[in-house]
Every structure is written in C-alpha cells, then in structure tokens.
TrEMBL record:
Membrane topology designation: Peripheral membrane protein
Subcellular location: Cytoplasm; Cell membrane
Gene that this polypeptide is encoded by: era
Keywords for this protein: Cell membrane, Cytoplasm, GTP-binding, Membrane, Nucleotide-binding, Ribosome biogenesis, RNA-binding, rRNA-binding
A single BP term in Gene Ontology: ribosomal small subunit assembly
Era-type G domain residues: 14-181
Region annotated G4, chain positions: 130-133
GO molecular function: GTP binding; GTPase activity; ribosomal small subunit binding; small ribosomal subunit rRNA binding
GO cellular component terms, semicolon-separated: cytosol; plasma membrane
Region (G5) residue spans: 160-162
Ligand binding (GTP): 22-29, 69-73, 130-133
Name of the featured protein: GTPase Era
Residue numbers spanned by region G3: 69-72
Region described as G1: spans on this chain: 22-29
C-alpha cells in the first residue's frame, strides 16, 4: 500500500447554506418562497409570522442553495419569543453566508443593530435592500446603500423588489460565491426539509393570521393530529387542533355559527390540495391551552423545540 496521504476527495458539486435574517416584515419569507419557486414559508403582513427556522432548497446545476428563513428579531415578551430570537441568532453560526434584508427607508432599530453586531463575529454576510418598488427617488436608494455599506460588515449590498420580482435572480450569483465544494445535502428535486404535516399546520396558521385581528393569532398554535391517505383513493384525511390561550379567543376563532373556523379551514384546504397534489378532507377543532407561549412543555409538544446549545 502506498504511504502517500489520502487526497481530499474532489467533488463536481457544491452547497451554500444561507441564513436569511432581518427585522419582521422585511420580506424574508417572500424572498425565500420566490427563490425556491415553491411556498415553503407562510407570508402575512403581521410580524412574527415565521416562528421556527424554515429550510428552502434550490439546486441549480452543480450548486445547491439552502436558505434558512429565520424569525424576525424583535423584543421577546415570552418564552416563545426568546426561542424565536435564539433560532435567528443560532442560524447565523450554522451557515456559509448570512443574507440580511433591509427596508429602503427608516432608521435601523435596536434589533437590527444587534444583528449587525453579531455579524461582525459570525462570518461573511451580504445585505439586500428589498422593496425598491417603494423608493421615491434614485438618490434615496444610493444613500441607503452607502449607509449600510458604512456599517462595515457586508461584502456587498444588493437591491431587489420581491413584489415586482426585480433583480432577485442576481442573488443566486451573489450567494454562489460562498458555495463550498462537496456533496449536495438534499435530493436535487427537494425544495424543503419540512415534513408535510408541519407544512399543513403552517398553512392553517397562515389563514388564521390573515383572517383575524392582530391580538389573537399570535396566541395560536396549530398541531396536525392525523394525516392519513384513504386506501385506493386520492384523498387525504387531515385532523388539526388549533390551540389558543383564552376561552374568549376560542369563541373568536370559531366565530358566529362556526363561520370564522369554516373560512380558515376552507382556505387552508385549497392550499393543502395544491401543495399535496390531491384532494384533502380537512377537519379543524379549536382548543384552549392557557398561556402556552410561556410553557416549556407545551412549546416542545407544539413543535417549538429548542435546539441543543452550541
């Protein structure tokens, strides 16, 4: 046998893991969905829509892009909020590059500046100014780019409009520069690592967020209890529990004569059928678990498990 050291294997493929970070409502989930080409993250105009780390996967030729859409950083008011912030900060340490989204106007808030500080310690990052469709004058955008570049943590600043699908394609080339030679971690036709049950639960929660007023939906969790294909048919039976924190909230989620619950379930069913590619029989029930957002056991059982510390 030869005594020469074994060479590192050569791969014709590469992967780049990307943390998508930024303040709430800056467009992280919308951008992730657009780049992936599939709906992997729910999107509403309400902050804190994304609660856990969502993985979006895009394979283009030799490069596989793995986008980790993280919860928007905010001032945590309960244990769920603290877990969401930890998920966002942990993601920055797990990736090849962070992609931080900004709005074109407004002062950077405390949470954004904290993220920028963290980026100084966690490796390479690029900045993306989203919502260029709202820019009133070209010089405004140039001033914003200069302000972000002056922070001294970003290798480059890009400008996009997710709404108009403008310039988003350029981000593949930008992120591809950070790709690391090696095997693809997901099948080339995969677009997320989330189980179907979790995606269905998220679609139901999205509809509750869309249809209900501000206060209640943050106190809502959705757990799919049954997900079963009927033998010999193209029909899946899905049973889901919608948990809220107060009896009064339960009444609002159900609505007069069950109207609100029916509206949520009907809209979610349409999305589920499109996503699963078959007919869906969706049954939803509303249950009360008081103050679940501050209950470690319930947070774990509802799927908000805290990943082991690094």
């Amino acid at each position: 046998m030869s005594n020469t050291a074994t060479n590192t294997p050569h791969y014709d493929t590469a992967s780049v893991f990307v943390a998508v970070i930024g303040r709430p409502n800056v467009g992280k989930s919308s951008l992730t969905n657009l780049l992936v080409g599939e709906k992997v993250a729910i999107v509403t105009s309400k902050p804190q829509t994304t609660r856990t780390r969502i993985t979006g996967v895009i394979t283009r030729g030799p490069i596989q892009y793995v986008l980790l859409d993280t919860p928007g950083v905010h001032k945590a008011r309960n244990k769920l909020g603290k877990r969401m912030d930890k998920t966002a900060s942990d993601s920055m340490g797990d990736v090849d590059v962070s992609m931080m989204l900004f709005e074109p106007y407004g002062a950077l808030n405390e949470s954004e500046l904290a993220l920028v500080d963290q980026l100084r310690r966690s490796g390479p990052a690029i900045a993306v100014i989203n919502k260029t469709d709202l820019v009133k004058a070209p010089e405004d955008l140039e001033a914003r780019k200069a302000e972000i570049q002056a922070l001294g943590v970003f290798d480059a600043v890009y400008t996009v409009s997710v709404r108009d699908k403008k310039n988003c394609e350029t981000l593949f080339e930008a992120l591809g520069r950070y790709a690391v030679q090696g095997p693809h971690y997901f099948d080339d036709d995969a677009y997320t690592d989330m189980p179907e049950k979790e995606l269905v639960a998220e679609l139901i929660r999205e509809k509750a967020l869309l249809f209900m007023r501000d206060e209640i939906p943050h106190g809502i969790a959705v757990v799919v209890e049954r997900f079963k294909e009927r033998p010999g048919t193209d029909l899946i039976d899905i049973d889901a529990n919608i948990y809220c924190e107060r009896e009064s909230h339960k009444g609002m989620v159900i609505g007069k004569g069950g109207a609100m619950l029916k509206k949520i379930a009907s809209a979610a069913r349409v999305d589920c059928e499109e996503f699963l590619g078959c007919r869906v029989n969706l049954q939803c029930w509303v249950k009360v678990k008081a103050d679940w957002r501050d209950n470690e056991f319930l947070l774990n059982s509802f799927g908000f498990k805290q990943e082991s510390g690094r």
